[in-house]
Fold this protein.
Amino acid sequence: MKMKLSELAGKLGLTLMGQDRDVSGVGTLESAGPEDVTFLGNPKYEGLLAGCKAAAVICTQEHAAQVASALVSVNPYLDFARLLALITPQQGCLCGVSDEASVHPEASVDASADVYPFAFVARGASIGPRSRVFPGCYVGEDCIVGADCTLYPNVTLMAGTVLGERVMIHSGAVLGSDGFGYVETPLGREKIPQVGAVLVADDVEIGANTTIDRAMLEKTIIGSGTKIDNLVQIGHNCTFGRNCTIVSQVGVAGSCTVGNNVIIAGKAGLNDHLDIGDDVLIGPKCGVRLSIPAGKRMGGHPAMEYTTYMRHMSLAPQIPDLFKRVKKLEKELAALRAVAEEGDK
C-alpha cells in the first residue's frame, strides 16, 4: 500500500491535521518509520509521541498538536484496526472450486465461493456466496455455511452444523462433535446418541482448536457477535447470547445458558446446567458452580463476587503471620489457665 495521508483520511472518514505525506506501512509508536502510520490509543503512552518517527499518528484532538501529522479520531484504537483491515491482504489465492476438492454432487456451492484443494463438502451441504473453505476442511452432511464465511485450514463441521453470515473459524476448530453424554449400566457407561446440531449466528469468530459439541436433541447455540478464543470447550446444549467474549482455555459444561455481553476470562470453568445473566464478568481461573445473576463480577475458585474475592486475596498473604500470632496467643492462654488452676488449689 502506498497512498497520501489525505487519501487515507478520506477512506477512514478522519480529519488530517498537519503535513500531507506518502505512507506505505504501519507500526507501533516506538517502531514506526517515516512512511508508517501508528496510533495513540492510551493516554499513558503520550510520552512516546516526542520520539515517534511515524509519518502520522491516529490520535484524539487532544494530542493532535504534538505530532507533525495527525489523523484525528474519536476512537484511535478502533480506527487503527480499520486501517489494518484496509491495508492487509486477505489470506488465500484461489478463486472458485479446486478440481482437487471433493464436493458431493448433491452439495450446493455458490458460484462466488472458493473451495480449496483437499477440502470435503458432503451431500446436502451448502456453501454460501463469497465464503471460503480452505484446504483440509470437512463440511459434513446437511451443513449450511452462510455468506462471507471463512473456514481456515482443517476446520471440521460435523453433520447438520449451521453457520450464519460472516462467521470466521480458525484452524483446527471442531463444531458438532458429539456431546459428552453417557448412561451408567452394570456393564459400564453406555453412550447416549447425540442427534442435535450446532447453530452459529452472524458475525461470530471461533479460535483455533476450539470445540463446540452438538446438542443431544436440539441445538447448541452461539449468539451473534460472540467472539471465542483458541482452545475453548463448549459442551452440548449450551446457549450463548449476543456479543459474548470467551477467552482461551475456558471450559463450559453441558446445558449452560449464557446471556448477552458476558465475558469469561481465561481458564474459567463452568459447571453444567447453569444460568449466567447478561453483562456478567467471570474472572480468570474462576470455578463457577452456581448460577450468576445479571451484572455480577466474579472472581476466585469457587467463584465469588469480585469485591469479596479481592478481600480474600489481600488477606491471604497475612495468613502465615496470623497463624503465628494465634499459636502465640494459645500458648499465653494455656499459661494463664495453668496459673489460674494453681491458684484454685
Remarks:
- The radius of gyration is 28 Å.
- The chain has three domains: 3-87, 102-307, 314-345.
- The mean pLDDT is 95.
